[in-house]
Design brief:
Blueprint (H helix, E strand, L loop, with lengths): L3 E4 H11 L4 E4 L7 H9 L6 E4 L3 H13 L4 E5 L1 H6 L1 H9 L4 E7 L15 H5 L10 E3 L4 H18 L2 E7 H5 L1 E4 L36 H21 L3 E4 L6 E4 L3 H15 L4 E6 L1 E3 L3 H4 L8 E6 L5 H9 L5 E5 L8 H13 L2
Parallel strand pairs: 2-3, 2-4, 4-5, 5-7, 6-7, 10-11, 10-13, 13-14
Antiparallel strand pairs: 1-8, 6-12, 9-11
Helix pairs in contact: 1-2, 1-7, 3-5, 10-13
Length: about 350
């Protein structure tokens, strides 16, 4: 199939269909509205289910029910809508139910604004709801990468029996890029969903979908079982990209749209004789600590660039373990940092040496 020029939200919706999404449950909120709008037109013709629920809370509980029946389920929203879904997301993780959640991030806190933001980082990477849990969380920087990761995410969710979060911002949701929907994606070794409440048909004992454990020992055992899967994510499934790091004097740490802008800044800095690299987390949970083990000795500083007042910087400081100075540059309120701003910040840091 040739590349198709599509708007971000619509391309991500089509990627979900091609990833085997059986059902979508969601509620409108800017800047992700084109995603459910596209699915409302195309899920039925592909033999799938689309429901616009009465609220975000209703949507995530519909996801819980369908996932419990063994379906591949998707919901999408934007920042305050994701906040409303947090209780249901905690229930999904507690009951070990796979689902895919797309968050097209907007500015906050509260209703904030409808412009791009990355200020949901902590909400995404720290669980967001109650209890000890995490979501395997992917942060693509391009529309092609978003499409590929969404297609793969249904396998990832099934493999871990855990929700997967796709974290993009309004830029990716609204940009238009050519996309190839037939690119190969990794295949996961999946087991039959023998746990699903999909009807006994006289062949087995009933399955119960539940996250309630009244016996403290049972609940502790369950939490440690969940911890084992999070540890497997950390040990085996970190994803990242290193750009221009071989002879870099300074490295920018950025994810998503901000990493794209950082690429332009690196090219501009090279013209001025400054060697700058990029560490780009693709998984923001698990945070790619292994990338920081590959930093060459030439690097003397790290610059974290985010569309927030500084959230990922805390993870960078943790994995850096005080080895290198960590600097920050951020824009908020829906203002997207320009490459020239990053260049000036890098020059300021390098000039201090």
């Amino acid at each position: 199939m040739a590349k198709v020029l599509m708007k971000g939200n619509e391309a991500m919706a089509l990627a979900a269909i091609k990833g085997g999404c059986d059902a979508f449950y969601g509620y409108p909120i800017t800047p992700q509205n084109e995603l459910p709008e596209y699915l409302s037109k195309h899920m039925k013709e592909n033999g799938r289910v689309f429901v616009q629920s009465e609220s975000e809370v209703a949507a995530i509980n519909m996801v819980y029910g369908a996932a419990g029946g063994g379906a591949r389920v998707l919901t999408s929203s934007s920042s305050p809508g994701i906040a409303l879904k947090q209780e249901g997301i905690s229930y999904l993780t507690g009951a070990e139910l796979p689902a895919v959640i797309i968050n097209v991030m907007r500015g906050g806190p509260g209703l904030g604004g409808i412009q791009p933001s990355q200020a949901d980082y902590k909400q995404i990477t720290r669980g967001g709801g109650n209890g000890d849990y995490y979501l395997y969380s992917l942060a693509p920087e391009s529309l092609q990468e978003a499409v590929n990761l969404i297609k793969e995410s249904f396998d990832i969710a099934d493999y871990f029996r855990n929700p997967v979060m796709i974290a993009v911002d309004g830029l990716i949701g609204h940009m238009m890029e050519p996309v190839d929907f037939e690119q190969e994606i990794p295949k996961w070794d999946l087991k039959e969903k023998t746990w699903a409440a999909d009807g006994m048909r006289g062949k087995r004992d009933k399955n119960v979908i539940n996250s309630l454990y009244l016996d403290p020992q049972d609940l502790e055992d369950h939490n440690y079982k969940l911890l084992d899967k999070y540890n497997e994510m950390k040990e085996k499934h970190q994803r990242y990209e290193l750009v221009n790091m071989d002879k870099a004097d300074i490295a920018i740490v950025a994810f998503g749209s901000t990493a794209r802008i950082a690429r332009s800044a690196v090219e501009m800095l090279e013209e001025e004789g400054i060697n700058c690299g990029i560490i780009r987390p693709i998984t923001i949970y698990p945070f790619p600590s292994k990338a920081f083990d590959e930093i060459p000795s030439s690097v003397k500083d790290l610059l974290v660039v985010e569309m927030s007042t500084g959230q990922m910087i805390e993870d960078v400081k943790i994995v850096n373990e005080g080895k290198l100075p960590v600097h920050f540059y951020g824009r908020v309120g829906g203002i997207v940092p320009e490459a020239e701003e990053i260049v000036n910040k890098v020059k300021e840091i390098v000039g201090e040496k």
